[in-house]
């Protein structure tokens, strides 16, 4: 029997602005039907830690969730070790954070090539795409420069719609859960 590995699933577009509501308890029950174990949800925005000995999970989970909840739920999965490594290298070190600065990590489903020269800045300098490494994009949003940021639009324009974004603080919370669930 294959050894179970730890994963994090990032679900796109659930529980945002009152749309596509997915109660976390219902989500856990649904995922258990796929034989996932040690399921832990983090926040209400679709971050799930789990263990599985299946390595073909993204489409399987996404399809199962759509059947269960009645709407598409794009799913991007990363191994726990990938998130731990990300936290250890901290791609945002050296960036001064204040009340207006938001640090974002965007996960791509597929590696996407773009002609975009990085780092890239929006016209109003409110949004900077710092780096793309593997299937992860690191970006910074400065709300003091624009009250109507077009950050997600820029990401989709340059990298496609098979993407989901999390605040760096969420990634740190996931890292804390990984440590406490070992």
Which SSEs are present, and which pair or pack?
Blueprint (H helix, E strand, L loop, with lengths): L4 E7 L12 H9 L4 E6 L4 E6 L5 H12 L5 E5 H10 L11 E8 L11 E2 L5 E7 L2 E7 L8 H9 L3 E5 H13 L2
Antiparallel strand pairs: 1-3, 1-4, 2-3, 5-8, 5-9, 6-7, 7-8
Helix pairs in contact: 3-5
Number of strands: 9
Strand numbers in spatial order across the main sheet: 6-7-8-5-9
Global mean pLDDT: 90
% residues in beta strands: 25-35%
Helix-and-strand structural type: alpha+beta
Termini Cα gap: 21 Å
Q: Tell me what the CATH architecture of the largest domain is.
A: 2-Layer Sandwich
SSE string, helices as H and strands as E: EHEEHEHEEEEHEH
Q: Roughly what percent helix?
A: 25-40%
CATH class of the largest domain: Alpha Beta
Whole-number count of domains: 2
| CATH overall fold name of the largest domain | Alpha-Beta Plaits
CATH homologous superfamily title of the largest domain: SP0830-like domains
Over all CA atoms, what is the radius of gyration?
A: 17 Å
Number of helices: 5
Uncertain segments: none
The largest β sheet comes out as: 5 strands, antiparallel
- Assign an overall shape: globular
